[in-house]
Amino acid sequence: MSMGIHRLWKDHLMRSMAPSPGAKLIDVAGGTGDIAQRFLSYQDGNGDAASSVHMVDINPEMLGEGEKRFGGSQWLRDGRIDFTVGNAENLEFIEDASFDFYTIAFGIRNCTHPEKVVREAYRVLKPGGRFMCLEFSRVENPVLAAVYDLHSFYVIPKLGELIANDRASYEYLVESIRRFPAQNEFAQIIRDAGFTTIGKGYENLTFGTVAIHSGYKF
Question: I need a labelling partner for 9 at 20 to 30 A (CA). Which of 84, 206, 209, 213 fits?
């Protein structure tokens, strides 16, 4: 659906995070490990060999793909990454105030109660920690929004049918994006959980096709 631009969005997320040396990240809905790998590579590139990632995903098969990705890596041998099957709405296996950063990329819209996810993020972050969410969002320009809706509701499902023989999954993708709160509404959910946001609390990318939401635990 993103035509490969999702890689640029994730790269921008990491640059926006700009983690400090020795940072501990929890990456929820971590799936195949895209964010975790970027985080560790970013830290290595800045001479930091102490930062670590805890990947969490509710889907064992998806998490297994992430484990395969890091299998045999120096990061795994050094104990800088580990994996847990778990529900973003209830991270009962994580102690309070354990992490410096919390990321969830293209996963929170699939959660039944996004507000519970954000409250759990607040709980597991240390004071001064940062919540960051990369998610499909709403195109705010009316003209561009009309074009985007046409592409989303008609072109994407048809491509899914022709290329992957799976129209239903692509229809669900589009519908899940539409059900997710608009940028300002989700920013308020983040504030309601206790986070402090800077400015409006989010940055639109690609005209609002996606947004990076951010909140600090002060």
Answer: 84
